[in-house]
Amino acid sequence: MTLLRRDDMVVLTFNFINLAQTGVGADRKLVVANPASPAALSVELPPQAVLEEATSLGGATTGVKAAQLSGPSTLTLGVPPNASIPFTAAGLLNWASLATTRDGTSLECVWGLSFRPVPTAVTWVHAVEPVTSAAGVTGLWQTHLALPPAATDPAGALASTLPVSLDSGGVPRPSQDFVSSLTPSQRGQIADAMGARPVLAKRLALNALGAEVDLTGNWDGVQGVGVTAYRHQSVGGRDTVVQVVERGYLFPLGFPVQISTCTERRLDYGLVQTSHLVVLVPRIAYTGLAALPHEGRGFPFEQVRLNGPLTADVSSSDEQFLDLGFWVYGPDESDRRRRFSLTAEDSRGHSATFSAPLAFVRGNLAYAGLDDAARLYTSQVGDLALPAAGRVELAPTTGDTPESSTVEVAALHIGAEPSTVAAADLENAGLLAAFPRLLGVEARLPALDAFTAQSVGGAMDVTAGQVQRLERDIDYVEHGLTAAKNVYARLQNPASLAPPAATTGAVASLAMSVTGLSSQQGLIGGDLAAFKNGRFDPLSYFAPPAAGGVSPAKLLGFLNLPELIPPIPDFTTIGDREDVPRMVTEVLRPPGALAPPDRVRTTLTWHTKVKVDTFGPLVTTADTELELRGTTLIQLAGGEPQAEIRGELRSFTLSFLSILDIKFKRLAFTSKTGTSPSLDPKIGEVTFAGDLQFLDALRHYLPSPDNGPRITSDPDRIEIGYSLAIPSIGIGVFLMQNLALSASVVLPLRGAGGVSAAFALSSRDHPFLVTVSLFGGGGFFRFEVDSGQIQLEAQLEFGAATALDLGVASGSVSVTAGIYLYLAPEGSKIKGFLRAVGALDVLGIITISVEFYLALEFRPPKEVHGIASVTVRVRLAFFSQAVTLSVERSFSGGGDPSFGDAFPTQVPWQARCDAFAPMGDQ
Q1: How confident is residue 241, by pLDDT bands cut at 50, 70 and 90?
Q2: Is a pLDDT exceeding 60 seen at residue 752?
Q3: 771 near 735, Cβ under 8 Å?
Q4: Sequence-distant contacts of 64-72: CB under 8 A, at least 24 apart
Q5: Dihedral, CA of residue 100, residue 101, residue 106 and residue 110, to nearest 10
Q6: What string of DSSP letters covers 389-456?
Q7: In 80-198, where do the E strands start and end?
Q8: Which of 761, 743, 754 is nearest to 657 (CA)?
Q9: Which of 99-108, 329-338, 562-571 has the largest mean confidence?
Q10: Mean pLDDT in the chain?
Q11: Which of 413, 226, 471, 469 is nearest to 325 (CA)?
Q12: How far apart are the first and last CA of the chain?
């Protein structure tokens, strides 16, 4: 039944439960139909609340706002078995003496949030008849929730308006179409919180226009509750002031925060909402129950401090973080997510400052079930390069062990992972059920920088160099260094390492593509998976990057180093592991208590056998070994770096062109700060080889002190020569002079060019001479190979001369011919000449001579140039005259012209085509 009373706007719908109507007319009344069953009077009120759109202060407008009415509210009043209710308007409204039952009572006096009184001994205070003032104004009917007078109160005492306890009267509405005073999440949290501690109502009045409420909730210290404080004031069903304090955490670092949201009604803009986030604890230490998983390897920091902002304006309508909370937005970011400034400190005391986006997670959802949140954060933030500055030890060690994994970071890549601690324990401790995870860093690698320095002993800055993207090794993070074979990181893009030969001992250059980092070996090249399985394959380890630009690793400047070193199936079985290159930078501290680092030491160690074989000119034996050792020490407080480098190759032979063999006991290079680099070759024997081996036996019988080997060296190269000078030999009409054989080898030790070898017979300045009677000639020959390029130079002259003297007259004739040959990659030369001279002298008064000269020269690519001349000289007493006739010609070979030469434009081609008769149909 619906009761409508226009005078004071009573709009009520009554439902009668186990009540029956008796009597007629003015005597009609309601009585309990079945005394054995509960009876109740159910009163349904029209909507008591309005959901109104709220805007932020910055976005507030005077435009039309969205609104939505709540559902009806129901008040259920128990009727005693012997009671009767007059069936009149006044009788139905006179329910003050009836007890409010919890079952069936649901008062939606806040949109989407229903309440019911906690104690059953409450009363409702209202007028049963319209109340009209002396001025003729009738008041709006409304009913007030109150506490009945206590038994100790004097007779006639009125109901008390002291706060009445309320709890949830039903399931809150799960969604809404626009921003308003409360979010669906906040309504749900308030409803759950009222189960632990009820809301206090200082005022709750219901009427046809909407409820008037003044509600307060305080759940500070109540576990499992996100909303810790709540204040709601409304008039006529429309909110005037709504305040909500919500606790939660900044995901994934776990800083406890509080968000205070205030929605107020303003005359100009309607409902205006502001939310303010405050960081409650700006420092998190990951110890005890909050200890990081995997023994801290996933996030190598022991504590993190939030530098700022410690307060921020936020909005719960910002981008949602699943159904757990929302991303904290801020200004000046392309993705709108606020960057919080953070400082993290590791176990060594290193600190790194960085900034990262964080999400707010509500306190009631923060202690379990954050697996999806961790995956979402990692997927959206993990690829972001978060700017950073400072140091971090990526693979922490303990005690006084030198730090071999400390890097200078330029950016961090952060993800998240869920906690495995029980939810109840986390809730009791007030800890977020998630942890940050360091996925990778962008850092300068001191070892990479140190080995690519331009000079040994020069100033080197361990913070300078190219930034590399490092990804944490998953095996190391989850299982430790032993399981990962000491590999703790991999490079996202392999880095080229091509240090000057002097920084790695000069005898070898260790050009490689760096793919990973090891706490023991430092820089790792090649197949990282194979290395983690204990295999060392030089061909993979020293492979240059696919992009090129880096020369392969070399031995002695010209031999392919990876082909010379034997692979190691399992280097983990080797005690000192010196068979695998170790290139490590360690951060050192003073002895004793933990103190800031004061030195950085970069170490190179490699001592390996070489395969027994012949590699071009290199011949090795079972005793051939390569050893490289170097140390660079830099004082962080300043000062000149101290560097000492030594490289040594032992027991090998260099054989060139089957002409010269050089047997080395050792070849050692040493460089030390403050001294000049030195090269110490220890040569056992230098001999001619192959078809010239007989010269070694001849050398022992020749007295010349110039015979034998000679060695000259400097830090850049070593030159080894061998010469054999043969004295002049005269036997009858035969005479041989200036004959000398020589061979030399030049080894570049700093990669400037390749190895070169030369063999010479005499020289341009001192050609050999051979004379047999009236015939004679001479020349020289030189053959040189430099980095695979061949250069040949040779010259040979020959001729004959004779003379006849008859006393009265005398004459002479000579014929000389020669050829010069020069072959080189940059160009070749071939020259030849013929010279014939005849002279006749009569009594010294008349002299006549004739000279013929012919010279030919080949000029690439297809030209022969020639000069011919005839010169006649006549001398008569004191008069002489010479006449020369000469001619110069060039002859070129040619080929057929190209189509473009014959027809440079369309016109000559068309003219040619027009010269032919047109083709007719056949």
Answers
A1: very high
A2: no
A3: yes
A4: 65/270, 65/271, 66/177, 66/178, 68/111, 68/176, 68/177, 70/108, 70/110, 70/111, 70/112, 70/237, 71/47, 71/108, 72/13, 72/44, 72/45, 72/46, 72/47, 72/108
A5: 40
A6: EEEEESS---TT--BSSEEEEEEEEEEEEE--S-HHHHHHHT--SEEEEEEEEEEE-HHHHHHT-SST
A7: 84-86, 99-100, 107-110, 113-117, 123-125, 142-146, 164-168
A8: 743
A9: 99-108
A10: 84
A11: 226
A12: 112
Highest mean pLDDT among 20-24, 545-549, 831-835: 20-24
- Please check whether residue 192 is in contact with residue 172, taking contact to mean a CB–CB distance below 8 angstroms: no
| Beta strand pairing call for 54-56 and 270-279 | parallel
Taking the C-alpha atoms of residue 636 and residue 640, their distance in angstroms, rounded to an integer, is 10
In which residue are the tokens 């937005």 written? Answer: 329
Give dist(CA 213, CA 231) in Å, integer.
Answer: 10
Q: Would you state the structure tokens that stand for residue 439, as one six-digit string?
A: 């996925």
pLDDT band at 754 (very low <50, low <70, confident <90, very high): low
For 445, residues 6+ apart whose C-beta sits below 8 A from its C-beta are: 407, 465, 468, 495, 514, 517, 523, 585
- What are 344-401's pLDDT values in tens digits? 999 888 999 999 999 999 999 999 999 999 999 999 999 999 999 999 999 987 655 6
Tokens of 239: 């909110």
- What is the DSSP annotation of 357-399? E-EEEEGGGSSS--HHHHHHHHHHHTTS-EEEEEEEESS---T
CA atoms of 472 and 491, how far apart (whole Å):
9
Structure tokens at 814: 């000579």
Which of these, 234, 241, 237, lies nearest to 209 by C-alpha position? 237
- In whole angstroms, give the CA distance from residue 476 to residue 473: 5
Three-class SS state of 339: strand
Cβ–Cβ under 8 Å, residues 822 and 792:
yes
Sign of dihedral through CA atoms 904, 905, 907, 912? positive
How does pLDDT run across 450-477, given as a tens digit for each residue?
666 533 334 434 434 688 999 999 999 9
d(CA 803, CA 20): 168
Sign (positive or negative) of CA dihedral 900, 905, 907, 913 = positive
User: 3-state class of 97 per DSSP?
Assistant: coil
Q: What is the pLDDT of residue 351?
A: 93
Grouping H, G, I as helix, E, B as strand and the rest as coil, residue 725 is: strand
Token look-up 């306190």 returns: 363
DSSP state of 639: S
Question: In whole angstroms, what is the distance from residue 850 CA to residue 848 CA?
Answer: 7
Query: Does the predicted model carry a pTM greater than 0.90?
Result: no
Query: How many beta carbons lie within 10 A of that of residue 722, not counting itself?
Result: 25
The pair of three-digit structure tokens given for residue 322, joined into one six-digit string: 């699943």
Range with lowest mean pLDDT among 330-334, 369-373, 872-876: 330-334
Residue 910, CA distances (Å) to 897, 899, 903 in order: 18, 14, 9
Element (H, E) at 306: strand 303-308
What is the maximum span of the chain, computed from C-alpha positions, in angstroms? 189
Which residues is 783 bridged to in the sheet?
A: 759, 792
